[in-house]
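2.7 Reproducibility. Because tokenized structures are sensitive to small changes in the input, we list the exact sequence used for LPXTG cell wall anchor domain-containing protein, including any N-terminal residues retained from the expression construct. No trimming or masking was applied before prediction.
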Amino acid sequence: MKKKLISLAMLVTVFAMQVVGVSAASKTATMAVTGSSKGHYEVDAMDQEELAEVAKADKATAELIKDINAGTKTLEDLAKAESSIASELEGKSLVTAFMDLRKIGDVSKTADGKYQVTLSVPALTKGMTDVKVLHFSTERKVWEVITPSNVDLNNKEITFELQDLSPIAIIAKVNASQAVTNTAGTSPKTGVDSTNTVPFAGAAVVLLGAAAVVAFRKKNA
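Resulting structure tokens (single pass, no recycling of outputs):
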């Protein structure tokens, strides 16, 4: 009986590890450079190094971006802090987290001196309208809301132009009744990853553990 219980415990552990492993492997980047922009630009998560660069321009903004990405603050908090873009944020939700956009080597600009970038955004769905790019310029120390030159909801891609490159996030008006859940994307409300199967893994362990206890009791009844 002892050997059977040990075997069952090992089975529970292996199952939990497999669930968590699948969860980690299924996650994709919030945004990724695609099309003709590949090899010219890159987007990275806002880690300490990127946040430190933002802090050089404005410490309060760096903290705000960090908190928004952590889900402890929202676009409403940004609107209160930056009245200049408050009206453009009204009624919109975060589609992605803030990520740092930068160029790789020399990049040709458009005729009006801007960088043209195309990104793949897995969280874009047909239930979203008025899609915009929210940008904090560390060079000019200003917030701005950019209207993309193209939004392809079917292929989940967005093309836009920026005067300079620094942290960006995608925002949009979200029709919850039409929006399609995208487990590889991010939550429209918080901009944090919507894929969270760790609780399910925990639940699976609890259920299997309970089954083991029941089996043991029946065996000894």
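The first helix runs from residue 2 to 26.
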